[in-house]
Amino acid sequence: MVNVLSVSGLKVTCADDRTLLNHIALDVTKGERIGLVGTSGSGKSLTAAALCGLLRPPLAACVDHLDLDGSEMRRASSRDWRRLRGKKIFQIFQSPASALTPGRRIGPQLKECCKQVGAPIETANLALERVKLSHDVMGQFPYQLSGGMKQRVLIAMALILRPTILIADEPTTGLDILTEADILAALSEMLDETGSALIFISHDLRAVSQVANRVLVMEAGTIVEDCPVAELNQSAAPAARQLAEAAKALEATC
Ligand SMILES: Nc1ncnc2c1ncn2[C@@H]1O[C@H](COP(=O)(O)OP(=O)(O)OP(=O)(O)O)[C@@H](O)[C@H]1O
């Protein structure tokens, strides 16, 4: 199996020398779908930001090895990262508003993605159709769209960019259960079409098991478990078992 992401010895520190992430090691194979779970503050979003080269001072990252689809990124500059972001690694954020430029209509933002990967401009319309959005959305500003619609626009961007790895950081948080199901279905279809690997960050094990078969559990800035979703309840790591038990208890009350 070809690794599209291989990272070891990732450490993130803060200006006051606090270690926020430590000993992060992770391999992702082509097209693999992984869930990244853990309690609030365990380091999921920081891990995602580090893997996308998006950490900014006062945070600093160092890493023993970071290979992104054949590019060694250990000493990569911001420029190197800008060149690869979108094409090789693309992130869908919890708050889609922060990923879209507020003062720019959706059309130009989608067309920019087309330009970035040399795709014909019509690809933007096709991508909108694939995520069940009308072409009218092209003329609208992000503030005119609902949260679910903005997430669909980001999935449309991923359809255009066809990244090697997609990181989805709690993409359904704050959405109602029907919209959540729609977004997860659109995400799965996008992955089927593009063959992108997925790192899906969520608190919701039910959603994780819908889109991923392998799960990583984080606790206090490190990965404490890496196993198939179905085996989480037998984990030697208490944090992993607690998550599985909490999810089961929640299911029983529904
Ligand atoms: N810019 C920052 N400066 C200092 N500390 C930070 C910064 N960003 C995050 N942290 C700290 O790093 C730790 C991990 O944060 P992170 O956002 O990765 O958690 P998370 O697991 O994604 O949480 P949640 O599930 O609530 O989104 C937390 O203790 C957080 O306070």
UniProtKB/TrEMBL annotation:
<keyword id="KW-0997">Cell inner membrane</keyword>
<keyword id="KW-1003">Cell membrane</keyword>
<feature type="domain" description="ABC transporter">
    <location>
        <begin position="5"/>
        <end position="245"/>
    </location>
</feature>
<keyword id="KW-0067">ATP-binding</keyword>
<keyword id="KW-1278">Translocase</keyword>
<dbReference type="InterPro" id="IPR027417">
    <property type="entry name" value="P-loop_NTPase"/>
</dbReference>
<dbReference type="GO" id="GO:0005524">
    <property type="term" value="F:ATP binding"/>
</dbReference>
<dbReference type="InterPro" id="IPR003439">
    <property type="entry name" value="ABC_transporter-like_ATP-bd"/>
</dbReference>
<dbReference type="InterPro" id="IPR017871">
    <property type="entry name" value="ABC_transporter-like_CS"/>
</dbReference>
<dbReference type="GO" id="GO:0005886">
    <property type="term" value="C:plasma membrane"/>
</dbReference>
<keyword id="KW-0547">Nucleotide-binding</keyword>
<dbReference type="Pfam" id="PF00005">
    <property type="entry name" value="ABC_tran"/>
</dbReference>
<dbReference type="GO" id="GO:0016887">
    <property type="term" value="F:ATP hydrolysis activity"/>
</dbReference>
<keyword id="KW-0472">Membrane</keyword>
<keyword id="KW-0813">Transport</keyword>
<dbReference type="InterPro" id="IPR003593">
    <property type="entry name" value="AAA+_ATPase"/>
</dbReference>
<protein>
    <submittedName>
        <fullName>Peptide/nickel transport system ATP-binding protein</fullName>
    </submittedName>
</protein>
<comment type="similarity">
    <text>Belongs to the ABC transporter superfamily.</text>
</comment>
<dbReference type="InterPro" id="IPR050388">
    <property type="entry name" value="ABC_Ni/Peptide_Import"/>
</dbReference>
